[in-house]
Write a structure and sequence with these properties.
The protein is α/β, with parallel strands linked by helices and 581 residues long. It contains 20 helices and ten strands. The structure holds adenosine-5'-triphosphate (ATP). GO terms for molecular function: ATP binding.
């Protein structure tokens, strides 16, 4: 428990002060919570003197009333303070963690997101942090407060009547053993529950994202299988966890019932043996019902405490993901040549690029062509350092990309992907993503250059139109032009462009080409090219085949050679239905 407290305080970062304050106020609250016992004992002593033929001292009534008033006032005061600090600390701590995770994710290699991690990350920022946010501090306070409470009463009992004090401690010791058992069971079972939770999120995300394909192919039953399995596993994990916890909690609480029963038997025996007075006996009998009250509650919270421990494990795992640019610096560049020297790269065991070398001088266009799966996307991703190369090196402006921080490297790039992602926000903000401090006029100017001002203005709410998540409410061509406007606004010196393979209608095609021409003016351009017009005008063409540079040169030079490029041109000519001169 102390370990868990330490972990939570370490985790709390800037909110540490609030959490400590909340713990302290909670402890003070529990001191006032114990006071009614004193009030009852005061009244009881008075009553006993009546039973022994004396008179009930009026002061006993007033003293007990005063104790109750102080107790209630103290509790309201400290409970409130503790609650305020706890709420402030917990929610601020978790929102800071969410921001930290978001920031951290910007620096991990893209490969991290491949390995089915999306659900894990979503679960971490939603359910895992949610568990911590709503329960952690309160549960730890109750658990720690419960044991401290019991300890204080136990010590008092030792002085008041040592036999009963020992009995109380015996009960407490056995209960702690069972509590340890609950913790161990939690350690064993909670990770399964957390993993099931993450799989459930992954399953649902995949199910919803693939809904279009599912409907188109009538695969409802098949696609639902994975989600059903994840739901089943989540239910099983929760049921097993809860059933183990509830039986152990039952044992834990039985121990207190047995200990209380033992006090009920031992106290009268002590009275019979003449070791205690009837007053003491009565006081012990009454207090036996109260001494374990706070620690009894702890049992039902042990499961939550364990879940919090597992949640902290999971959060640490997410935050410990190695980042790419730990040792990177902010490097200003005075030129934008790009050089690849003997670059090799594999996704896990799968070799994708071998010994690729190339020089792309600044303000030139390099077209990358090659068959599907040959490694074109991988190559441009390595230049932007979405992954690190395994062999060789890539330099931008004469500096190894590994020497930059991700932010410092990527501020030199505008990247236009084939699959455009638009955020669930206004069109204006989606374009502004390229330069958050841009003015309205800048946004409109970029949109005009990207040939999307007209269609945006025709929308009922113009630039304030909300686009669905991923840009679902716009056509493919429109999305692409918005992403080009975004890149134009960023105005970075290096452009990475994955040309759309999907054919668009002639009107859209013309506008798209005009937008690209605006974007690429006076820039260093690396373009995965699919269109003949683009390839023909490139200063240099790299033909990637089987992960190596099979051919390189200009369009004219490569047309003279037999090989992949000639085949590529023939296929494009057939597809586009026209010939190049
Ligand atoms: N994230 C990834 N994890 C594992 N393997 C990958 C990943 N991305 C691509 N691959 C594999 O690497 C190889 C090269 O893929 P890449 O996307 O670079 O090819 P490409 O030439 O761009 O293909 P296309 O023209 O079809 O987009 C392929 O065999 C692909 O299956």
């Amino acid at each position: 428990m102390i370990q868990l407290m330490k972990r939570l305080l370490e985790f709390s970062g800037k909110q540490r002060k609030n959490l400590i304050a909340s713990f302290v106020f909670n402890l003070l609250d529990s001191v006032f919570e114990m006071m009614p016992i004193m009030a009852i004992l005061t009244v009881l002593s008075g009553l006993l003197s009546v039973a022994e033929g004396g008179v009930m001292p009026v002061s006993a009534i007033w003293v007990s009333l005063a104790i109750m008033v102080v107790s209630i006032a103290g509790r309201i005061f400290f409970n409130n303070l503790s609650c305020i600090r706890r709420t402030l600390g917990s929610f601020s701590m978790c929102s800071e963690k969410r921001l930290e995770i978001g920031e951290h994710m910007k620096h991990v290699p893209m490969g991290y997101f491949n390995e089915n991690r999306l659900g894990e990350i979503v679960a971490a920022v939603t359910t895992t942090l949610g568990d911590i946010e709503s329960n952690a501090v309160m549960v730890l306070e109750k658990v720690a407060g419960g044991f401290i409470h019991a300890l204080v009463i136990g010590v008092w009992l030792l002085f008041y009547e040592w036999h009963i004090g020992l009995l109380m401690f015996a009960g407490l010791a056995v209960s702690m053993l069972v509590y340890g058992g609950i913790q161990k069971a939690g350690k064993r079972l909670s990770p399964r529950r957390q993993a099931a939770q993450a799989n459930l999120v992954t399953g649902f995300l995949e199910y919803i994202q693939g809904m279009g394909v599912v409907k188109a192919f009538g695969l409802g039953e098949m696609s639902g299988k994975a989600v059903n399995q994840a739901i089943g596993e989540s239910a099983d994990a929760n049921i097993i966890l809860e059933s183990v916890f509830s039986s152990l909690t039952g044992v834990y609480q039985t121990i207190f019932k047995l200990a209380k029963s033992a006090i009920l038997v031992v106290a009268p025996y002590l009275l019979l043996g003449g070791e205690i007075t009837p007053v003491k006996c009565l006081l012990l009998l009454v207090s036996s019902f109260m001494i374990y009250s706070s620690v009894e509650l702890v049992g039902s919270m042990a499961s939550v405490a364990r879940v919090i421990d597992a949640s902290l494990d999971r959060m640490e795992a997410v935050m410990d993901t190695p980042v790419l640019d730990e040792h990177g610096g902010d490097i200003p560049l005075d030129h934008y040549d790009i050089e690849l020297a003997h670059v090799s790269f594999a996704y896990g065991q799968e070799n994708v690029l071998q010994d690729v070398s190339a020089i792309i001088p600044e303000k030139t266009t390099c077209a990358i062509v090659g068959p599907s799966g040959s490694g074109k996307t991988t190559l441009v991703s390595l230049i932007a350092r979405f992954w690190d190369v395994q062999e060789g090196k890539i330099c931008v402006g004469g500096h190894d990309v590994k020497d930059f921080t991700c932010d410092s490297l990527l501020k030199n790039f505008s990247i236009v992907f084939q699959n455009v992602y638009l955020f669930e926000d206004t069109i204006e903000n989606n374009i502004k993503f390229g330069r958050p401090d841009a003015t309205r006029e800048d946004v409109i100017e970029a949109a005009k250059k990207a040939c999307c001002h007209e269609f945006i203005s025709a929308l009922p709410e113009g630039y304030h139109t909300l686009v669905g998540e991923g840009g679902a409410s716009l056509s493919g061509g429109e999305r692409q032009r918005i992403s080009i406007a975004r890149a134009i606004l960023k105005d970075a010196p290096i452009i990475i462009l994955d040309e759309a393979t999907a054919s668009v209608d002639p009107e859209n095609e013309r506008e798209l080409q005009a937008a690209i021409a605006e974007l690429t003016k006076d820039k260093t351009i690396i373009m995965i090219a699919h269109r003949l017009s683009t390839v023909r005008n490139a200063d240099q063409i790299l033909v990637i085949d089987g992960g190596t540079v099979a051919q390189r040169g200009t369009h004219k030079e490569l047309l003279q050679q037999e090989g992949t490029y000639k085949k590529f041109i023939q296929i494009r000519e057939q597809a586009e239905g026209w010939r190049i001169q």
